[in-house]
């Protein structure tokens, strides 16, 4: 048995290379002054601090109406500077040493990305000469402010970037030698245990253990004695672990087990359960590995945080991913960084242990087709940018693809053998505008930006045959374990499980092209969906609408397959093993729900009532829907109230007597409250939100949700009942699927679990044999 800290990051993290500032400096940077920060840190993530920034004017001083800018990264979720309430959080005071009158304001998008969040300080009366200072007191305590709330995610090189326009001509220069400070994880609050999803009996496997602070940052595991126990016999599992070395994660290996389902629990010395692993199904090999991946996120070299090197280490050693990609915005990837990124992809790629997937995010404006993920099977793919907006070197401008149609045309002719996915980030993919059946193999239905089932519905509407993926699209340098913190990212980052024949990049691309995968909102579960086919069926990897597509005779189909089959009956078989009890599983034909399975039945007599709100304002960047509200129970007692998908610990449920209040946003995903009542039938429940109100007798609440359509983009308010106990972590079912001549069926499943997670299979497309 080996306990190991798997990270190879060495003694110090690697700093992300700086981004280019577009415009030559108006003055020599060495004459732009200097800046200091005090104290020097480090500071705990999400903490309130008093930090003083002092700018000392350079040779030119700052003329009347000249400006100082203090800029912060797009990805930060720190407090918004305010200037009117000295007793409030995030109060910022500003003064000039010579008494010059200053004006201050804050703008979310004023400077060049990624440092686009901007505190603007303008000299409105007077001027500064060389040696005069401007003091910016973040979280000034003089008036009673508790401090300035720092961002909730760790960053060893956090920067307040300072630029100055000393000539008052609107032309800024970055002040040289700017200090940084470290934002570090707080104390351990939670743990995560990660097992492989499928293991052959007797085959060695590893348990990954990760410690996290209240914001999801990897925290120090050392100095603790922790106990381990397993369901069933797991050979090699220690009874306890204790670490002296500081580390946020470790691997316990090699472990082996016999057939069955393995779950491992982590306990403290008093025996309290701290965390339970995802289930590992130990069964004879079926020819497919289950490889968990987050292929869509960014590092600090583009708009995210941390270096690409540390990003890779986190994915492998802390998130325990099997595969990772890096999807920097094309218009921010210089040729130098493209070369460095591909070098890292080659260095970290290790078949059998960790797969890297080269690529980038084509970030065209929505009107030109919107965001696409582009993946290459090798490190020599050509980057085809939507623009050179932040890349001054235009020597490769001839390879730009200025809209999504041009992108697909050029990728198809390139010989790079790429795979693309449509996704919704700041921009959303318009697959009505452009789609290429050869290249675009999937749509992303969930990320940190929210849940986007409408994107899959768009594909069904157009008759496209695509798979389902989920990723983080994370900006915090934490691929595979991306919590939203306190930012506009309102959801937990997603994961995709690939069904691949081998543990290497070529096999992963086989799975990507064949759509052999399913996505989740971050949960690791085992989902096996197959269809037994009528005699004479042909299974296609490529869409049979392509002239070169060839089908192979088959008696069964896997999720993602496209099948040409005759009229008759197919048999759907599904097996599910999850970390959390199942609330509902929908069998769908495209967007139509054929059947909803609730394994606990009608939940009659259950004292657990769940209130859910969901949806978004619209498809674009500012899609957050605010649900700040409350519920009240009359004629009954609330025994307990538990939040669902509340990711901001600064905004907990407020429980008082017969009422529960909350502050919550959704971005296409859902959040809610689970109540335990003293009585299953008595009283009424009233739910009040800005987007809708429900008032109903508790006796009338059933397992089938009572739902109110709240407008906008799939916004809804719903209430349903759960049984007091729900032991259904597993589900096995079979159903007949009728196949009619001339009708295509698009069979998929979507599952919802008590812990707030969701999962979607890729569809199996059953097309009439006359269309092949």
Give an overview in words.
Strand 27, helix 1 and strand 28 (323-325) form a beta-alpha-beta unit. The longest helix has 14 residues, at 335-348. The chain is 7% helix and 40% strand. Strands 27, 28, 29, 36, 37, 39, 40, 42, 44, 45, 59, 60 and 61 form a 13-stranded mixed β-sheet that branches. Strands 30, 31, 32, 33, 34 and 35 form a six-stranded mixed β-sheet that branches. The protein has 772 residues and is mainly beta.
Largest sheet: 13 strands, mixed
How many domains, as an integer? 5
User: What's the number of extended β-strand segments?
Assistant: 61
CATH architecture of the largest domain: Alpha-Beta Barrel
Q: What CATH first level of the largest domain would be assigned?
A: Alpha Beta
Strand content: 35-45%
Shape annotation: globular
Radius of gyration: 27 Å
For the residues shown, what is the average pLDDT? Answer: 95
Distance between the termini: 54 Å
Within CATH, the superfamily of the largest domain carries the name Metal-dependent hydrolases
Count of alpha/pi helices: 5
Note poorly predicted spans.
none
SSE class: mainly beta
């Amino acid at each position: 048995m080996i306990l190991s800290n798997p990270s190879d990051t060495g003694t110090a993290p690697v700093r992300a290379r700086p981004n280019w500032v577009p415009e030559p400096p108006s003055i020599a940077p060495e004459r732009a002054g200097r800046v200091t920060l005090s104290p020097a840190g480090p500071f705990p993530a999400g903490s309130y601090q008093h930090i003083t920034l002092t700018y000392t004017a350079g040779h030119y001083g700052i003329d009347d109406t000249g400006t100082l800018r203090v800029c912060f990264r797009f990805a930060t979720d720190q407090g918004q500077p305010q200037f009117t309430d000295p007793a409030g959080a995030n109060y910022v005071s500003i003064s000039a040493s010579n008494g010059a009158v200053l004006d201050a304001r804050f703008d979310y998008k004023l400077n060049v990305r990624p440092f686009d969040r901007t505190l603007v300080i303008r000299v409105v009366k007077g001027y500064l000469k060389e040696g005069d200072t401007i003091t910016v007191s973040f979280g000034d305590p003089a008036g009673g402010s508790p401090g300035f709330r720092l961002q909730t995610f760790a960053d060893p090189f956090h920067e307040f970037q300072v630029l100055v326009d000393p000539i008052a001509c609107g032309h800024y220069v970055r002040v040289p030698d700017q200090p940084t400070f470290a934002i570090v994880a707080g104390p351990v609050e939670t743990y995560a245990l990660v097992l492989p999803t499928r293991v052959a009996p007797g085959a060695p496997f590893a348990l990954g253990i990760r410690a996290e602070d209240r914001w999801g940052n990897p925290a120090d595991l050392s100095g603790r004695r922790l106990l381990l126990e397993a369901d069933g016999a797991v050979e090699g599992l220690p009874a306890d672990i204790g670490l002296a070395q500081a580390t946020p994660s470790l691997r316990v290996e090699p472990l082996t087990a016999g057939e069955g389902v393995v779950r491992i629990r982590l306990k403290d010395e008093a025996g309290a359960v701290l965390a339970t692993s995802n289930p590992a199904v130990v069964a004879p090999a079926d020819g497919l590995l289950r490889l968990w991946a987050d292929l869509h996120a960014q590092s600090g070299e583009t708009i995210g945080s941390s270096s690409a090197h540390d990003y890779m280490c986190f994915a492998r050693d802390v998130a325990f991913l099997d595969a990772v990609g890096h999807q920097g915005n094309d218009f921010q990837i210089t040729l130098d960084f493209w070369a460095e990124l591909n070098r890292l992809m080659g260095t970290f790629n290790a078949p059998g242990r960790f797969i890297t997937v080269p690529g980038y995010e084509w970030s065209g404006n929505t009107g030109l087709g919107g965001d696409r993920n582009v993946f290459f099977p090798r490190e020599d793919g050509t980057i085809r940018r939507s623009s050179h907006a932040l890349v001054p070197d235009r020597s490769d401008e001839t390879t730009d693809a200025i809209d999504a149609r041009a992108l697909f045309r050029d990728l198809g002719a390139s010989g790079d053998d790429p795979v693309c996915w449509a996704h919704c980030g700041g921009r959303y993919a318009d697959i009505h505008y452009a789609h290429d059946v050869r290249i675009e193999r999937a749509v992303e239905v969930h990320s940190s930006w929210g849940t986007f089932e409408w994107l899959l519905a768009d594909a069904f509407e157009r008759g496209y045959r695509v798979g389902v993926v989920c990723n983080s699209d994370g900006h915090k340098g934490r691929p595979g374990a991306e919590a939203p913190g306190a930012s506009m990212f309102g959801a937990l980052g997603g994961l995709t499980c690939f069904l691949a024949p081998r543990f290497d990049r070529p096999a992963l691309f086989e799975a990507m092209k064949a759509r052999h995968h399913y996505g989740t909102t971050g949960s690791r579960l085992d989902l096996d969906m197959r269809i037994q086919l009528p005699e004479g069926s042909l299974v296609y990897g490529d869409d049979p609408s392509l002239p070169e597509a060839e089908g192979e005779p088959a008696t069964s189909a896997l999720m993602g397959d496209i099948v040409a089959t005759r009229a008759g009956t197919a048999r759907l078989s599904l097996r599910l093993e999850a970390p959390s009890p199942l609330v509902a599983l929908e069998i769908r034909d495209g967007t139509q729900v054929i059947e909803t399975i609730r394994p606990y039945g009608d939940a009659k007599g259950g004292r657990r009532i769940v209130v859910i709100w969901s949806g978004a304002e619209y498809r674009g960047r500012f899609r957050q829907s605010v649900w700040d509200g409350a519920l009240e129970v009359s004629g009954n007692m609330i025994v307990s109230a538990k939040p669902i998908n509340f990711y901001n610990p600064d905004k907990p449920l407020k429980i008082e007597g017969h009422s529960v209040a909350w502050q919550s946003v959704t971005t296409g995903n859902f959040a809610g409250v689970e109540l335990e009542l003293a009585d299953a039938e008595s009283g009424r429940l009233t739910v009040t939100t800005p987007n809708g109100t429900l008032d109903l007798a508790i006796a009338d609440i059933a397992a089938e949700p009572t739902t109110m359509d709240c407008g906008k983009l799939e916004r809804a308010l719903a209430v349903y009942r759960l049984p007091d106990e729900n032991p259904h972590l597993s589900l096995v079912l079979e159903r007949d699927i009728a196949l009619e001549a001339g009708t295509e069926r698009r069979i998929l499943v979507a599952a919802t679990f008590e812990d707030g997670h969701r999962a979607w299979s890729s569809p199996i497309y059953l097309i009439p044999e006359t269309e092949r």
